[in-house]
Amino acid sequence: MTVIEEWTGRHAHALRTALRLTNEAFAEQLGISPRTLTKWRERPELVPSPFLQEALDTYLQKAPPEAHLRFAANLGLEQDPGPIDKTVLTQLNTALGDLTRVLARLQAEDPERSPSP
């Protein structure tokens, strides 16, 4: 999960869009005016009050996983995709084996297809 040490207007705007809320709805949840959100968007370096920092932390923590992904993407952060499903990994390994066998057959039938050293 992405952790924000100090929220700025840029972070707050990224969270609002990740949650897919309007300025009005997000402002209402935070107990601020929509104009404040507009100001944060226009001046992304602004730092909200400590009270709002805590509120933004709470909204980020409660956000669903897909909103976390959108939030990280909005900020240009890399997000850990989590563990790979073993079923998918098995399917990928099987497909790789099949492709290797097909390539070997093609090269045996037409030596000119063999990669040059």
What does this structure look like?
This protein is 64% helix and 0% strand. With 117 residues, it is mostly helical. Helix 1 (9-18) packs across helix 5 and helix 2 crosses helix 3 (34-42). The longest helix is centred in the C-terminal third of the chain and has 24 residues, at 86-109. The radius of gyration is 24 Å and the shape is elongated. The mean pLDDT is 89.
Topology:
Blueprint: H1 9-18, H2 23-30, H3 34-42, H4 50-62, H5 65-75, H6 86-109
Helix pairs in contact: 1-3, 1-5, 2-3
- Residue stretches low in confidence (pLDDT < 50, at least 5 long) are none
Largest β-sheet summary: none
Rg, Cα atoms, Å: 24 Å
**DSSP helical segment count:** 6
**What global shape is seen?**
elongated
Distance between the termini: 46 Å
Strand content: under 5%
Number of DSSP strand runs: 0
Mean pLDDT: 89
Structural class: mainly alpha
- Helix content percent band: 55-70%
Order of helices and strands: HHHHHH
